[in-house]
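Reopening: Transposase still failing for me.
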Amino acid sequence: MPQELGFDSGMTCRRRLRDWNEAGVRQRLHEALLAELHAAGALDRPRAVIDGSHVRTMKGGPQPGRARSTVPGQAPSTI
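Support: Ran it again with your exact input. Result attached.
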């Protein structure tokens, strides 16, 4: 967050977000938003997307394979 706009330092923001997350604030805000959207008829649950960052697997998910490089390799030599 830019300090020029009156925000605290980035470290302060990270600490506050961490503290709020540990205190359950993010979860309560998420639930309150969902309840408000549902009450307004603006939540289409069948079309909702489950994001892995919000749903924990109980026994852990599958281990990802080795990440493929997105950097192009060297062009083959034409000599």
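The first helix runs from residue 10 to 22. If you still see a failure, please send the error message rather than a screenshot.
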